[in-house]
């Protein structure tokens, strides 16, 4: 085994227009295009190096490598064989709690493997490959606002950056729970698609998508927030009306925070809620109102962890890191 390594950093993204359902599960083709904001404060660093077998360590804890191994085998079949890899990741974001940790994780992994193997790939190509590991990972390669085109086949479903925006957007992230969600995103999507309202949600999402892009171009943050909230709440309503094992990601605190956001609007704040596949609520607001909303949230909800997130950068590679010793330890233990 050699000592060659490659480390990539990808930031998580929050979908303002949701991806919730697949028209082709094998290719991870979504039923709708989606639109997201990459976040500066939450990210994943992933290093790969040759190992004895595909192995995964996240935040210093050994993990079941099955999903990563399957994805690495896909890359081997797609781009050419490469040796088993030791994958060491550090998540600066809760895992599996509805803050899109899989997006930053699979984007960083895809980029690290491509760099390790000296593949000369565009961001569009990396996005397309990462889609097979996690759909939302397509968007984590790009700074600021990005759009993932639903496409109609493997080549046409990828993400790209939207024009640079000066919109003063911020998210007040209310972390209701760090625990792993009981219903995975993949399972949740399958169940949601059995809702009698699903096709109507898809049609409405297509309409909202055009309005959202126009609002972004016009720096109309209020319209962006209003559409994002409507789209997200309608998505979660699908889960509750699914004919196949209806469910919800909401906790009582989730519901209480949504009511809190509505009260903020009555008080004159620009505040709208968006929620991914988990109980955590992100409050869309202006950067100059974020700190006051954070303080109000902390005063209203005991033990709630609240952070402010702002637009973040795209993919980067890290030359200096402290991953190598961890990888060597893993390889020696296998």
UniProtKB/TrEMBL annotation:
Its EC number is 4.1.1.33. Residues 172-302 form the Mvd1 C-terminal domain. GO terms for biological process: isopentenyl diphosphate biosynthetic process, mevalonate pathway. InterPro entries: GHMP_kinase_C_sf, Mev_decarb, Mev_diP_decarb, MVD-like_N, Mvd1_C, Ribosomal_Su5_D2-typ_SF, Ribsml_uS5_D2-typ_fold_subgr. Transmembrane segments: none annotated. It holds the Pfam family MDD_C. One of its GO terms (molecular function) is ATP binding. Coiled coil: none annotated. Keywords: ATP-binding, Lipid biosynthesis, Lipid metabolism, Lyase, Nucleotide-binding. It comes from the Bacteria. Residues 10-159 form the Diphosphomevalonate decarboxylase-like N-terminal domain. It is an enzyme of class 4 (lyase). GO terms for cellular component: cytosol. Belongs to the diphosphomevalonate decarboxylase family. PANTHER family: DIPHOSPHOMEVALONATE DECARBOXYLASE (PTHR10977:SF3). This is diphosphomevalonate decarboxylase. It comes from Fructobacillus ficulneus.
């Amino acid at each position: 085994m050699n000592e060659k390594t490659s480390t990539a950093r990808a930031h998580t993204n929050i979908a303002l227009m949701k991806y919730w359902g697949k028209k082709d599960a094998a290719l991870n083709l979504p039923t709708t295009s989606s639109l997201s904001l990459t976040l500066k404060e939450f990210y994943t660093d992933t290093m790969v190096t040759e190992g004895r077998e595909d192995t995964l360590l996240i935040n210093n804890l050994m993990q079941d490598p099955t999903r990563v191994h399957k994805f690495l085998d896909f890359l081997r079949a797609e781009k050419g064989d490469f040796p088993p890899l030791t994958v060491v990741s550090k998540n600066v974001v809760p895992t599996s709690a509805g803050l899109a940790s899989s997006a930053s994780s699979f984007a960083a992994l895809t980029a690290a493997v491509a760099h390790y193997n000296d593949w000369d790939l565009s961001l569009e190509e990396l996005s397309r490959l990462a889609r097979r590991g996690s759909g939302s990972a397509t968007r984590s390669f790009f700074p600021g606002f990005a759009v993932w085109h639903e496409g109609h086949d493997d080549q046409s479903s990828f993400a790209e950056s939207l024009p640079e925006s000066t919109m003063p957007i911020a998210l007040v992230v209310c972390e209701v729970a760090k625990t792993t969600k009981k219903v995975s995103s993949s399972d949740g999507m399958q169940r949601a698609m059995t809702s009698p309202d699903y096709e109507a949600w898809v049609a409405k999402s297509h309409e909202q998508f055009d309005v959202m892009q126009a609002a972004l171009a016009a720096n109309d943050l209020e319209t962006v927030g209003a559409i994002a909230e409507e789209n997200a709440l309608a998505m979660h309503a699908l889960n509750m009306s699914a004919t196949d094992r209806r469910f919800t990601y909401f906790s009582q605190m989730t519901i209480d925070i949504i009511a809190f956001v509505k009260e903020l609007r009555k008080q004159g704040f620009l505040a709208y809620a968006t929620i991914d596949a988990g109980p955590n609520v992100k409050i869309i607001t202006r950067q100059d109102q974020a700190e006051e909303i954070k303080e109000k949230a902390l005063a209203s909800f005991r033990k709630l962890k609240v952070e402010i997130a702002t637009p973040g950068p795209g993919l980067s590679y890290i030359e200096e890191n402290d991953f190598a010793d961890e990888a060597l330890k893993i390889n020696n233990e296998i």
